[in-house]
Fold each of these.
Amino acid sequence: MASSATESEFVTLVSGDGFEFVIPRSAACVSGTIRRMLEPSSKFAEALTGRCTLENISGIVLEKVCEYFCYNEKNKNQSNVPDMEIPAELCLELLMAADYLDT
Amino acid sequence: MDNEVPLPPPRRIRHRSPTKTPVASGSSLRKTYQLSRFDDRSSQPSSDPALFSSDDIPASGLENYHAPGPSGSRKRRYRGTWWGEMVKDPKRKRADFKEKRHVDSGVWMGSDESGADSLLPSEDPSMWGEELLNDTSDAATVTMTQGDRSTTHSQPWPQRSGLKKVQEPKEHQAARNIVNECLENGQDSVDLSNCYLKMVPSGLLRPLQHLTKLPAIVEPPVTEDVYSSLQPFLRLFLTGNSLQSVPGELFELGSLKVLSLRYNKLTEIPPAIRKLTLLQEVNLAVNRLECLPWELLWLIKKGDLKHMVVRPNPLMQIHQAEIAQWHSPAGTEPDSPEGTLKLRDYEGPAPEEAWAPIHVATGPVRRFNMEGMPVDAPASASQPAPQESRVPSLREASLLACTRSVFFDQVSDDEMADYPGLILRLLRQAKDVWSGGGRSCSVCHRSFVIARTQWIEWWDCSTYENGLKGPRCPGEKLRPLPFRRFGCSWACVPNAETDQDGQDDMAL
């Protein structure tokens, strides 16, 4: 079980209010915090199960965060990066989340 | 018949109201009343018969169709009534009018007010103002109660609500008066020099973008130089104040042609100066500038900037600065400071490069992390390769969304202090950038808040410093100026810029 989770291509991010987001591992590792959580050598529970619970991030914000992860993954090697739409009411919470996730 | 009319009609009305009544009596009584009432209101003192210039009068036909003039399509003009009567004798006209008064023309000649009257909320015009007053006083009481209620909760609210007007410093009022005067007189040279301004109050410069010149009235003999353009040649002089920063508002004046910030206390010119694409002359002398924004160079190369005064300023000197790469022109020995600091000899007419700015050297690139903190080792092993991508960080993206949102400028510093400390520093930085007019990456032109790379480019612009009076002499010593460039991502570095710039040049 543990070995299969570390090799798994996808990880699950769980928000504080219980929403689950399944995203590619490489995309989630854009965040320094999640990358360290999922480090196989760390033997953290997250690394073993492939499931990160982010207590202080609400579902709405985490959805936008996941959107950013995929946006980052998609445009990583492009020279002309389009802008990502961020609604004004979310930007402060996203800023907090970004600080926490170190992205 | 006449008893529907509340007052005995004036003499002229007499022959009109009976004309109307037969039409109206068929429909309804109410309508009759309205018609006669309109009549009363619209009755004007009798005036001269109107001048008409039309062919399609009701009585026109073959019998009174005059032979057309030489032009053929000329409209007939005559003075008289609309049903085609010519005025021969004022007294005779009166008689004719009385004879014809029973003929129903079928045309309702109600005045313009007839339609508008029914749309107005109040019948009595004297009431209109009062209604408006009531509305505003209602609104005022609402804000008053809001203000009262909030005073119990927090102190700073009443000042922000606008009920209590904060007294403006005298020098700001004086500056506003000068700006208003210029706006009223259509004067496009705005002189705010020596106004003792420590900062430019908000809203002072913004109206200037709508400045229009007034046409000058010149006594007759009219010569050709009387005709001048009404397009304002906007000049703004903020000389001799104590400004410590340039307000972002200044860069909204897209039509600004001449800008003088001489003799202030500026430590930095915001990169937003790039928005002043029509700028022709700029004076930044006697300030505290250590380097210039790279966007100024962009204005020289791609814009209209012809004259730039930047000395004296405590500018960085190339001899003391760290240089990563010397750009020597082809044909000279590479990477030698002496070779590049001298213009190549030329014979005959001055080549283009004797006029154009010359790229002398590039300083080392400083990199910053996502927090905007300097990173010492630029390409150490701890930094993985994906960091080189051009994708903005989530911090950057959300900060940019913050600055673009409407509420951002309404957040006061006091309110900001309540935000969590983690993001406070970033938000403060975003606010500084925003009030300076925003930044855009000098390589990929994306807007950004936190610079990720920064480097100095040394360019010699001596021809532009003396206003393009003459080319450089052969073998002249170059005096390069430091221009600071910002990049929005770690991929935006000098090497990346060369091909981008090349593309830009090709496109232009």
Note: Confidence is low (pLDDT under 50) at residues 1-6 of chain A.
Amino acid sequence: MNRLEVLKTYKIFIGGKFPRTESGRFYKALNANNEPVANICLSSRKDVRNAVQTARKAQGAWQERTAFNRGQILYRIAEILEGRSAQFVEELMLQSFTKKEATVEVESAIDRIVYYAGWCDKFNQVSSTVNPVSSSHFNFSTNESIGLVGVLMPATSSLLDLISYVMPIIAGGNSCVLVASEKLPLTAITFAEVLNTSDVPGGVVNILTGSVEELWSPLSAHMDVNALFIDKASRFRKDIQLAAVDNLKRVREMSADLKTENGQGLAFITAFQELKTTWHPIEKIGGASSSY
Amino acid sequence: MPKANTINHLPSSPSVDKVGVEERVARFQSRSIKNHAKMQGLKMVLSMIDLTTLEGKDTPGKVRQMCFKAAHLHDGYPDLPNVAAVCVYPSMVRLAKSIVGSHGINVASVSTAFPSGQAPLEVKLTDTKYAVENGADEIDMVISRGKFLAGEYAFVFDEIAAIKEVCGSARLKVILETGELITLDNVRKASDIAIYAGADFIKTSTGKIQPAATLQVTYTMLQAIRDYYDETGQMIGMKPAGGISNAKLALHNLVMVKEVLGQEWLDNKWFRFGASSLANDVLMQIMKTDSGIYQSGDYFTLD
């Protein structure tokens, strides 16, 4: 007798919990042969609202963590992902990757997490400056997390892409609300399970699934979102930029080839930092000119 | 019919069916209020707020700031109502009155050794007189929960009556501090005592104790008001305070008031919210309903 296969319903990830979408809707993710492989939540704007609310609450404490500790936690994500790599390979194959492609994808993803884990307690030293000024001030510029970042993944992006978008954001002490790839959402939610078991505080990363067409608007217009990270080729690019104007969100666009080393780097971290310059009065010692 | 002036006239309080209350309350929370009705409701909530600061660390600057907020909830948005009152400690009444008095906003003062109420009657009377003389339009007194729980109902009754006497024209709100009364039966009993002793308003909590204004407690108190109204034809006001920090919960409260007491109570003369952070959430909801864009606390004044 043939067994009727049970399709897993992939739930969304908000505040370290896995609720269903408040709308109760779902869609079927298909593989290359148009066969359904899983039930996926079709999130609504209210899920966006809930996710932003919890991401906002989580952000302050995440930023307050020591940079070193954030690095430890990111490294922990890589460890856990390594341990579950077989599951990810299998899931990618469900979505019509070949075994070889899938293995490369997962390994590159793990390496990229380790890369950003290393940057956590170093990027600020590298990208901060002490500035020469002609008054009695010690003047320095240093990075501060931009806050809450909304991420819209391209429709056909997968695990490595998601890692490449998320890691530089959270490495710099931001929290994020991410709308996963519409066509290949399975690994995004399984990755949420990894996040949930790897010391990342609930709410720092929130992952929604569903239609970007429906969700770009509430996310881009949301006054409590400080920046957006989108695909430069997104067909909603102009609409998103317009919607982001009200509270002057930074809209960062990804155009790098994520499969290569161009898909990682310091610039992706500093893209989600604001430079803060401090003028600290100092006593002019002995008329010395440039010392502080 | 005049209010009874001794506890002997107090009818025995009916016992409260806790399971029934919970079911009824759950139904209020499932109402869906959208668009136009929601907007009306939100504005009504704003007009019913007693904007409150009751901290040991309150300074004149802090009170001044809050009073300004009371009169200018969000100047960027036209036609918003003012809040009903500001609620402060007696020492801040004069200052508050000097700022909001000209805006038609009342000044409510807590009194009677708020929040514990653990002081002799003499001190409580002085406390209240001081607030009234400084210009308080409303007095929020606390009952002696210790005496109440010890069964000395007459003491509690007489105390409320005595405070009522020195209030003069100021309206008296009686805080039951339901979080310390433990059972809904006690809440009902305390409500009846307060109402018959001369309260113009009954109020759930000081905001210092959790749980505070749960819907169950508020419902029980509304029921006491309903019964008193049926008996005497006199209206008593209700003020849930503490823990009502979002617009949705506030709207649920309005639904409950409307359905238990009726339309006449949907007015800030008869219903108030004691809250500090509720106003901003309601403002954000109004802006959201109007613009369709989710709002951020960053763009609203803190006090």
Note: The domain at 9-281 of chain A is CATH 3.40.605.10 (Aldehyde Dehydrogenase; Chain A, domain 1).
Amino acid sequence: MKFDTPAGQNPIDQLKVVGKATDRIDGKFKTTGTAPYAYERHDVVANQAYGYVLGAGIAKGRIRAIDTAAAKASPGVVAIVTTLDMPALGLGRMNAANLFGGAQIQHYHQAIAVVVAETFEQARAAAFLVKVDYAREAGQFDLEAVASSAKPVPGDSGEGSGGGSEDRAGDFEGAFASAPVTFDETYTTPDESHAMMEPHATIAAWEGDKLTLWTSNQMIAWTKGSIAKILSIPEASIRVDSPYIGGGFGGKLFVRSDAVVAALAAKAAGRPVKVALTRPLVANNTTHRPATIQRIRIGATPDGTITAIAHESTSGNLPKGKPETAVDQTKLLYAGANRLTAMKLAHLDLPEGNSMRAPGEAPGLMALEIAMDEMAEKLGMDPVAFRVRNDTQVDPGHPERPFSHRNLVGCLKLGAETFNWSARNPKPGQVRDGRWLVGIGMAAGFRNNLLMKSGARVRLGRDGIVTVETDMTDIGTGSYTIIAQTAAEMMGVGLDKVVVRLGDSSFPVSAGSGGQFGANNSTAGVYAACVQLREAVAQRLGFNSADVAFADGQVRSGNRTETLAKAASDGELVAEDSIEYGDLAKKQQQSTFAGHFVEVGVDIDTAEIRVRRMLAVCAAGRILNPKSARSQVIGGMTMGVGGALMEELAVDTKRGFFVNHDLAGYEVPVHADIPHQEVIFLDEVDPQSSPMKAKGVGELGICGVGAAVANAVYNATGVRVRSYPITLDKLLGQMPDAA
Amino acid sequence: MPSFGENELSRRDVMAGATACAALAAVPARAEGRPETAGPEQPVLAKVSLTVNGQRRELELDTRTSLLDAAREHLHLTGSKKGCDHGQCGACTMIVDGRRINSCLTLAVMHQGSEITTIEGLGQPDALHPMQAAFIKHDGYQCGYCTPGQICSGVAVLAEIKAGIPSHVTVDLNAPMQVTDAEIRERMSGNICRCGAYSNIVEAMTEVAGRPA
């Protein structure tokens, strides 16, 4: 189905199932531990051996030799594959570093060997007997130290943000120079780790030339294509299966070493091999969100009208890596005729930087939305009013392009009202609650809505059960449930009559899970397939398809009524289609919007920061399942608190690796860090987005929230921290007197 | 992991001591009868008897096997998850002899005779434990990987509070212990949820505790 004109009235608008807060259909499996994750699939293939991955102990250089004699002689060892056994394997989609092969080490903990044994304990013990002789080379590991050597580069996150090395509108320099009120500050965000709960894991099995990977990956078709390229085997020989994924956040967008190494190990062992990256490998072997240095300049008239805005970001990466696209939202979020955004990229020999939840916008808004707070204060304006003043209904760099639907102002106003913003004391450091200094902060949230082709197959069985098959993944996002809701709505049945099967590459290719594009596109693909199935049902029943209604398990046309199951009484009906998009998104800008509001307490003596209240008001088109969508948003808010207050991969700038590579050293929010969180969705639809009229919310929740926390800390203490995370050591020396 | 070759005898002695203390004799099996000096050392196997979810299970395990891996790899009870394998995330939480523990931080052979409840023992898809049902109702999970650990911890936390076991945030040690949000958050903080379902988990636990959410 080609979607090239805005959606009119369609069966989804009935909202009998779609749009209702719905318990997840996979909930009873996840809560009982019966949902099968990659490493646990004892049932899929017999005789699985255990692979243990060894990571490089240097950040840059070459391996002279690997001595596997002791490891090979170790009990239970079945096979050992080392990186010296083959030339460097090709790069998979979006990979910046080779996942395996060759003597060259590009980053710390790059996979260099896999030891296969009968048991996990044997594989682990043997792996530590492998002796590696390294020729270490000097590398660049300190972004700040090399930032001056960074070169202008264009770049695209592949997830909705990107741009040229420099994008301009009007005359920024001239307008900034003549602006009555100006602001110029620099902010830094650190490297961050996805730290999803399930480490990357794969079971690989060869049957002749056919390879099956039971893995944990967000993008099934990309993985299949990448594995084909890396292993030089035809795509048709590969099956990838990921029905359950224990979190990804972008860290499982692209194929990683676990899958490659498992395939190689299974080949060498002559039997299936299962591999899970150990937790300490996750930070350095896989990808991370790159650190940024961001300069923001804003010029305005005294009434708070922005006349000039510039956002420049410097990040670092391996030579084939991309920049963090932290400036992208600044092209679209606020009005102003004179604009500049620019990106620079420095060469770093740290592990590969790549997409992490809202790549670009998440760190970009952490900086921009502090800058907006600072500028509002400079102007003597309320931060909400300053943002409302500079709202725009068109792409400010291309005023001929309106937003398809934009109600940022609604988010900010409703949020301010709900959060009792008017009670905030704009003078920082004034509000006390016992030993706590209390502050309130806000920020705008912004993230683009992406349209991606997405396919699905729908079956109507003789028993009247509707089965949906698509390679879409559910990474905790609620895909199973919204896809079931879509099929139920379209076919006029209850959720109990719908079965959803996901994550198998033998199913039609979907949008996959990334860039908050999964929900709208994958359900639109299911919608398209259901339109075909409805047609097939009408034909089978001899109905005129133009006036057929599907409801309550029945099909009605004129005065005739049949059960839906009747249509399949002579055999299963199968329909397949995908949603494909025209140029609607080019003509009009599709984005999602939020207002984030946060209250913090900061201990007057210790500067310990506690988040006390959080609210997000979101405008993201139709909300398909308010229950799971709310969870997506609070999850983003939680990760945003992490980014604001604690998350930072500590770089050993001498040896070139992330030191705190586990869940004790890399701190993420725990229960005690997170208060009750409130989310309000504005009641809206966006007919430009798809027949579902929905947009993404999975990343909107993290966009802006970090700055809202930062602004609340400033309001509480009067201390402005421009270097994330905002830890108490950055406050202590400047805290107000305790008296 | 270093080779224990030179310490072979002393380690064997330690193992013998440990097994002698156990209620049932757990004899290192494969290590017997092997020449002391020949080649790399064979894994030491030991028999262990556990009661898992009410069922007596007899296992013969490499003594290096964690309780978590015994469940996941040997009993195929994969509900308990391996998130970090060193006690930092809580995904492996089981209830052992009435107390929740990180099952990745303990060896299976240390649990001779233990009563172990895993997520599978709390409830099944067609017969949910009230905590499992409450997690579904309040959407106290997303990807589901930390969820079995959260639920096992949640059940045990409510029992700890009921038993009057204090926590860091307990205000009055002499008063009856209350199921407050602060108590839940403090006691649950060893169970990381990267998807960020904390706010919903507190609501689910509060409902099960019988306090208005």
Note: The beta strands of chain B are 45-52, 55-62, 93-96, 99-102, 115-117.
Amino acid sequence: MKLLTKITLTSTLSKLATVVLFIALLPFLINRVAFQSTNNLLKLQARKVMSNIKNNGIDYYLQGDSTYGSYTLLKDEYISLEKAKHIYTADTIQTAPRIIEGDTVQYRILNQAFEYNNHLYELEIGRSITSISQYNGPLQKIAFYVLGMLIMLTLLIELSLTRILLKPLQTIIQTKLINPVFPFKDAPAPIHTTTDDFQHLDATLISLMTRIKEDFDRERAFTSNASHELMTPISILQTKMENLLLLNNLDEAALGKIAEMMKTLNRLKKIVHSLLLISRIENAQYAKQDCMQPQQMMAEITEELLHRMEQRNIQLSVALQPSVTIINVNHDLLFQLFYNLINNAIRYNKNNGTIHISDALHTNGSYTVFIKDTGIGIEAADIATLFNRFQKKHTTEEGYGLGLSIVKSIADYHAVSLHIDSVPGTGTTISATFLPIFITHAHLSG
Amino acid sequence: MKVLIIEDERGMALEMEDFLLKAGYLCDLAFTARQARQQMEQGPYDFILLDLGLPDMDGLMVLEEAKKICREASYIILTARGKLEDRIKGLDLGADDYLPKPFSLLELQSRMQAISRRKSGLKDNLVLLGDFTINLSNRTALYGNTDVGLSKKEFDLLSYLLLNKNRPLTRMQLSEHIWGGLSDDDYDSNYIDVHIKNIRKKMTAYAPADWLQTIRGIGYKINL
């Protein structure tokens, strides 16, 4: 998920949570405020009653009776005063129901006891709270609308501000992380920003990229130099040995030794060749402008390798679609790739075994070549290290363990994914899958 | 045939000279571009073998210059630089062939002969081999007028052995000639034996092929 999306989401969620909490707490808050002000009102009323009694005497209310009561027309307020034998309610303010003329109403009630002329009296003043709680619903609704609108507004502002703030990061990602295709052609340009963090990130990335480019250039130069420096002495040795072999007065033993030396030199030569090949592929020194038809290429390769199959009586069957063409690849490299794979399928096969080469055009447009052998197979644990350089499992076999490294380099260079499926003792299937962009199919292209 | 070897590695140049002298060529050596220019001005050459890695001048520039002085010569570029662009540029500048180092001297001679054949413009290039006739132009081995039916690889092998007749060729030299460009995993090529067996089988069906000798522990040789 993008940072901007995350920030927006977090901000929205936290705001929503706050608003929901506030709206949920709203009735409680309103009640608290309402009770507070009702309490004050009731206390004020009580003080007024007390001052009336003080100034005008208790009969101002009682007028000879033992009780007095009065309520307003809508019964939202009432007052009662009575003589009491003993105090059964302390001075309190509470919420309780009262029945007045048959109606049960919830009241906020103040009870106060006092002594007048050696008699105990109890004063009770009530104020209805139904009128208060009936506002809760509408208030919540209003709060919901107002806050919702505020959230939308702040979100819009935040979103555009964050977008502006994060723009340098976006530029860094675009220009430094996604777009540059390795190897980088030029040194990357610094971005313009006043945010220290981004400046730091950008500077670090630029220095990293510059270092990679330098290392890459150095490696390229090394490859070229190493190629020259190693190949020249090997050439001299080879030509000297060849001339030696042509001397007439050599006995069989000497000839044999020279042949052995040439064989060893050839091994050295092939190792250097292979390492240089891998290095050149990894340095992208091969153009990818050819197209190749798998069926045709397999025919060429199997012709090259036919004698090896004959020697071990290995049966080959090839079933490939003639309509498939792979484009924008390097023909020679792919030839090498499949040559090595098929060569392995022969080398690690059993005598009288079979090799089956088939393909599949997938619905998403990708294309896979399968090379299936009935060979000795590969242990599951060894598959992961199979493509490592100089990795040889079968030490009795000829080879120096670079064949599959070459395969891997070529595959990576062409974005081909390799998959190995193997049952030890039964056989191995190697599949090479090309991305849809490299595939044209005669029926599709007309 | 006169050959100018332009190569700054003396060891290499001397071995090439040694080999080509035995093969009947006349050789001159140049270790720098300056020496090469002097040599070229003195006399015409049939072949100029040019190493691209000269100390005093870029090899491709030497080639450009040489083409003006020795117009008639055939050029083979020898290089250990191994850059693909070099190969393409070299051939664009008019080189006749390109051999990456390290190369086999036998291969060098075979390329030189191929160029000579091409330039001589002979329609049929026939070589006698025992009771057989080898046509190097259309790549067939004939017994009388009958095609023996060698495969492409088999013919490659036979003609290479024939080209280097009376010399022992190791299996390695033979396999390098046939599968030279591929970096496969094998450094021991007993696969050559399969081809030789097939060649013998196909040819002895018509006439004895005892000119093709096996040299134990080394390889093969055509004795003529």
Note: Chain B has two domains: 2-120, 126-222.
